[in-house]
Design goal:
Layout lengths: L4 H8 L17 H10 L5 H19 L4 H8 L13 H4 L4 E3 L1 H13 L6 H9 L4 H6 L15 H13 L3 E4 L5 E4 L1 H8 L5 E3 L25 H18 L3 H4 L2 H10 L4 H4 L7 H21 L5 H4 L8 H12 L4 H7 L4 H13 L7 H7 L2 H13 L5 H8 L6 H16 L1
Antiparallel strand pairs: 1-4, 2-3
Helix pairs in contact: 2-3, 3-9, 6-7, 7-9, 11-13, 11-15, 19-23, 21-23, 22-23
Length: about 425
């Protein structure tokens, strides 16, 4: 997602020039917004507030049921007199809106009941009555509010909380791990509730695909689900032979990209998300053979036959990181030297390792991570079906382990067993 509506507007303006047709597809997931929020964590308070305000404008635009053209032009000070442009997803497929004041009131009660010390996901789990390790440890399943919103889905409550953020009824405290705090406006709402319109739509899980935001409005997916399933089966078979967790071979995003791009050569495989030369050489051959056979049998026209994919060259930064890790330079010093946040540096290292390059972070981990924690995390990934850091944090316990610890040890594990 772009960091602002200005950025979004600039990107959409690059198509449709010289009387050509322009089709805009915006793929929206709130997890992307949370990542962007974390990137602004190390900025000054004023800068953070501006960045978060711009992000909330993007969220508001994405979640809105209003005509996209009308809302976008209004943001830039122009008036579009029509109510329906007849071209965007909201005009072609209007969302059902309901007065959500009772839902907002219930969510605010849950925030108060947890003393304004919990993140949005935790609040949603309380509302739908979903047990988790955190719910148990804090005994929040004993709260009167627990399970009061179970008639609605997790997806619906996510939307309610995001609308509350847009309406400034709650604010997310990024400095404190994104916990929700009730604003003065939220306090006013509790005293005198008023209409807050929320979308009452089917969960995305009920359909097969992501929904387009600003294009033709139809549901679409570019991933070949049959091929994706075949690739997962092949990965499982290789993982069983190698006695490794499947994600060590190739991760799901890599398989998904293969099921979009249909690579059939080593060179094409190395253009796939999360696949570097090392990983391509080590595990690529059977996957390429499967894809080539599938493409031929189904007479598929591949995207790679039609366009030349441009790749941003980040090799300079990657070489710098690898070289300095070899020299046993602390990660803090590497980040400072390249003006990166800790999160950005970890993301770069994860990308290097996930692509098949071996990196030895032992010198850093031995100084910064408790040996018992390291052992526990490695044991977890040896048995895990997914390398999801979020899932590991939930399963191992957010009170005892940090996200950074899990990410670092995951890097060590994948580097040692997979590369």
């Amino acid at each position: 997602m772009p960091k602002s509506l200005e950025g979004y507007y600039q990107e959409t303006g690059r198509s449709g020039r010289d009387d050509g047709e322009g089709i805009c597809l915006a793929f929206y997931a709130y997890e992307d917004i949370e990542k962007l929020e974390k990137f602004s964590k190390n900025k000054g308070v004023a800068e953070q507030e501006i960045a978060n305000q711009l992000l909330m404008e993007v969220v508001s635009f994405a979640e809105s049921a209003m005509c996209r053209r009308k809302q976008l032009l209004h943001y830039f000070g122009e008036i579009y007199p029509e109510e329906n442009c007849g071209n965007c997803d909201n005009c072609l497929h209007p969302k059902t809106l309901i007065d959500g004041r009772e839902y907002v009131d219930l969510a605010l009660e849950a925030v108060l009941a947890t003393k304004q010390l919990c993140k949005a996901k935790h609040i949603v789990n309380i509302l739908i009555g979903k047990m988790s390790s955190n719910i148990k440890s804090y005994k929040h399943n004993e709260l009167e509010i627990f399970g009061k919103g179970m008639e609605e889905s997790e997806h619906f409550w996510d939307g309610v909380l995001r609308q509350m953020l847009i309406e400034r009824l709650v604010v997310k405290d990024i400095e404190n791990y994104g916990i929700l705090k009730i604003t003065p406006e939220g306090q006013k709402f509790l005293k005198k509730p008023y209409a807050v319109m929320v979308a009452k739509d089917a969960d995305p899980e009920e359909g097969d695909d992501e929904e387009m935001l600003a294009g033709g409005g139809a549901r679409t997916s570019t991933t070949d689900k049959t091929l994706f399933s075949l690739l997962k089966d092949l990965r499982k078979e290789i993982a069983r032979k190698e006695s490794l967790p499947p994600f060590v071979i190739f991760q799901d995003p890599s398989l998904e990209d293969m099921a979009i791009q249909y690579p059939i050569t080593m060179d094409e495989l190395q253009r796939i998300t999360g696949v570097g030369a090392g990983k391509a050489q080590k595990y690529g051959k059977p996957f390429l053979e499967l894809i080539a056979s599938y493409v031929e049998e189904n007479e598929i026209i591949r995207p790679m036959d039609m366009v030349v994919k441009s790749v941003v060259n980040k090799s300079g930064l990657k070489v710098y990181i690898i070289t300095n890790i070899d020299r046993k330079i602390s990660l803090e010093d590497i980040a400072i030297a390249k003006n990166l946040t800790a999160d950005e540096l970890l993301t770069e290292i994860e990308s290097i390792v996930d692509s098949g390059t071996k990196i030895d972070l032992s010198y850093y981990l031995n100084e910064t991570i408790d040996p018992y924690h390291m052992e526990e995390i490695i044991e977890y990934f040896e048995e895990a079906e997914t390398d999801s850091v979020e899932q590991a944090l939930k399963d191992l316990g957010e009170n005892e382990y940090t996200e950074e610890e899990i990410r670092l040890v995951r890097i060590k594990y994948i580097s040692e067993v997979g590369n």
